Amino acid sequence: MNRNYIVLVVIAVGLAIGMLLMEPSNQTKEIEPFKLAIAYNDPSRFLTIDEITDRLIKKDPGLILIDVRTADQFKTFSIPGAINIPVDSLLSFSSLEIIKNPELEKVIFSNADALSDQAWIICTRLAMPKVFVLKGGVNNWFKSIVQVTEPSPTAPSEAFDNYSFRLAANQYFYGAPASSVSPGAENEKTVRPVQKNVETKRSVPAAASGGGC
Questions:
Q1: Which residue of 63, 86, 166, 195 shows the fewest CB atoms closer than 10 Å?
Q2: Are 35 and 11 in contact (CB under 8 A)?
Q3: CA triplet 131, 69, 40: central angle to 5 degrees?
Q4: C-beta separation of 91 from 68 below 8 A
């Protein structure tokens, strides 16, 4: 199927959801659908797991992570420091106070990308400032930070640098190297990790051997 067609369908769905959710008192200026389609295809709307992890460890005050999944999914497991605003509550008065804040970079995520894309479309259509999507969402965090995998011996040095960083992040957030857990789900299924306590605050330990941090 043509990718542009898929983009237009996603945008149409997102706009329909946004119109259904938006209360009359919350209506604000909207950007044109054509400009929204261009923004949707701009890769700069995504932030990576490693970018977010680095900023979380540094306690960046200008960053806020927004989990748009259901409250039950959020309670089961989420990314450290995230707040929960389900997609059907994005345009509530209390949520808009956060999302409209021009001083904050709002990073939306779900299990994968589909639901977070819909949330991004709603926010961007309504010209909310500094809204991004965490690429791969919880599934990608789970694979990259919770289930840190050592590169093969023949991997380039950059891979070992990245591994050292992620291993240090795992120890920062969870206190010990991750144990075996069930695989992350894809396409908005619920992930089920072993460890739920993600609020532990620790200093970043020295990087493991194999590459600089």
A1: 195
A2: no
A3: 35
A4: no
